[in-house]
Design the sequence.
């Protein structure tokens, strides 16, 4: 629920690219599309990059917490 002019999705995707993970923004949605051959370690890297990128762009309190 972000205003389109905030460009939240684009900004998060740019922050993820700086961390070596390519994603696709659709409005304020960040799309992850790993190939079927992705390893568990690579998924963990993607999730970590997402958490860091959200914290960077939207603030630490907005970052997702995964168990």
Sequence:
């Amino acid at each position: 629920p972000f205003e389109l002019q905030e460009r939240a999705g684009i900004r998060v995707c740019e922050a993820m690219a700086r961390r070596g993970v390519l994603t696709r923004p659709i409005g304020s949605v960040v799309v992850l599309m790993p190939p079927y051959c992705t390893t568990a370690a690579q998924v963990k890297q993607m999730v970590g990059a997402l958490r860091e990128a959200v914290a960077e762009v939207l603030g630490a309190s907005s970052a997702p917490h995964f168990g």
